[in-house]
Prior knowledge:
Blueprint: H1 2-15, E1 19-21, H2 26-29, E2 35-38, E3 50-55, E4 64-67, E5 70-73, H3 74-84, E6 89-93, E7 96-100, H4 103-114, H5 119-124, E8 127-135, E9 140-146, E10 153-159, H6 161-167, E11 168-173, E12 176-179, H7 181-195, E13 200-209, H8 218-221, E14 225-234, H9 241-250, E15 254-258, H10 263-272, E16 285-287, H11 288-292, H12 296-305, E17 308-310, H13 314-326, E18 331-335, H14 341-346, E19 349-353, H15 359-364, E20 367-369, H16 374-411, H17 423-442, H18 465-496
Helix pairs in contact: 1-16, 1-17, 12-13, 16-17, 16-18
Amino acid sequence: MSVTLSLAYSVRKMTATNNLVRRMHACETIGAATVICTDKTGTLTQNEMRVHAAELPSSREDSPFAWGATSVGVSKLMQEAMTANSTANLSRDHGVVKPLGNPTEGALLLWLDEAGCDYLDQRRSFKVERQWTFSTERKFMATMGASAHASGRLLHVKGAPEILLDRCTALLSDKGDLPMGPAARGIKIQLQEYQTRGMRTLAFAAKFIGDGEESQEIDGLAQDLTWLGFVAISDPVRPEVKEAIAACRTAGVEVKIVTGDSRETASEIARQIGLLGATEGNDDHHGGEAFAALGDAEANSQSMTLKILSRARPTHKLKLVRCLQDQGHIVAVTGDGTNDAPALNYANVGLAMGCSGTALAKEASDIILLDDSFRSIVNAILWGRSLYQNIQRFILFQLTINVAALGLALMGPFIGVKLPFTVPQMLWVNLIMDTFAALALAAEPPHADVMKNPPRRSDAFIVTPSMGRTIAVVGALFMVAMAAFLVRESCLSSRNN
C-alpha cells in the first residue's frame, strides 16, 4: 500500500514535468537507468527544420534542356519532386504558415512557399499513380505518376544521399544527361561540408518509367536513377540539452545517440551538446550496418564504448538495447516512429515522443515525453531516484517500529507483562500511523543531490547495510525505552495493590 501511494504521487507530479507515465512501475525504473539511447531529431534538436541551401547540378536553374526525349527545367522538376513526392502539408492560421506532418518534408514546403511557389498547384499537376512511403529500412520514399514538366511517366525518389547516389547512373545538368561517375566525388564533398556543420541532407532523383516496369518491386524499380540535386536542412540544438547531458554524466548515466542521420551530422550534433570532445569520434562512432554485422560477443563489447550509432535502422537499435542489457545495464530508449516500437517495448523503460510520436510508439512506451525534450528525461530520472529514496525512508520507518514492537511483545512475559500491546493498539499503529506516515514520506519533494550519485545496481537489496544497522540500533533503543516504561508501570501497579 505504501509503495503504491508513493508511485501514484510520483505519477501525478511527473506529469507536471512533461512526463506522462503510462505504466506505474516506470516511475521507479527510470531512476535506476544506467544508459539512455536517444534519438537526435526533436529530442536533442528543436525539430524546427528549415532549408539552409539547395545544391542543384544546373547553374541555370530555369533553363530548359534535353533529358531523354523531353525538354525540362531543373527548378521546375525539383519543385515537382518536393511537392508530389511528399505526405506533408501546410496550414495557414491568421497568416501564420505551419507544416503539418513530417517535419523534414514540411521544411521543403515552407521553403517553396517562401519562394512564392504554390505547392498545391504543383501537386495537382502531377497525376499520382502509386506512392511508396518512407521506410527506415530502405531510407527513401518514392512516387510514380505523369509529370507536368516532362513527357512520360516519372518515378520521383527522395531519401538519404548516399543511398540514392549508389542508385544513380546519370546526372541532370544544364548540359544534358551526364554520366554520374565523374560528378559523384564532387557531390560527396558538398554533402560532407553541410553534414559536418550538423545539417541534415536530403537527395532527389528521378527516372522515366516504361510500360510494364510499374509492376516491379520498389527496390528494383528505383535503379538507374538520374540525380536531380540535394538540400541541406538545419535543425538547431535545444539550448537546454548541453546542460542535461552534463547532468546525466554527473549522475553516472551514459547517453548514446541512435539516429538515422549521416555519420558527419551525428558527430557534429554530439560535439555541440558536449557528448563528444574535439578529438573523439572514430572509436566511439559506429554505422548501423557495421554494428549489425558484428557477432554477439563483439557487439556486446562495442556497445559499452559506443556513443553514436548513425544511419541506424530499428533492428540496429533493438540489437544495441539487447547488447546493453546483456551487460547488466538498465536501458531507457526514446523513439517516435512505428518501427521504434520493438526497441521501446524491449527496453527497461520506453520513452515515446508526445508531439511527434506515432500512436503505435506511444502504445509501446512506458512514459510519454509531452514536450519531446531530453531535459524531461533528466527530470524523470530525478523523480525516479527520489521515489526510491522515499520508499527506503518508509521501509526504515516501518521496520524500526516493527522491530521494536515485535521485540517488546516477545520480551513482555519475561519482564512480567503478559500483553504489552492490546489488539486496538496494534491496529492503530499499523492502519492509522503507517498510512499517514506513508503519505508524508511519499510527498517528500525530490532533491537535486540524488543526481550526484551513481545509479543503484539492479540487483541491489532495497534495505542497505546502513539501513539495517539503523533499524537494529534504533529498534533496540525503542524496545529498551518502552520496556523500561512497562516495568515502571508494573512496579507502580504492584505497589498500589
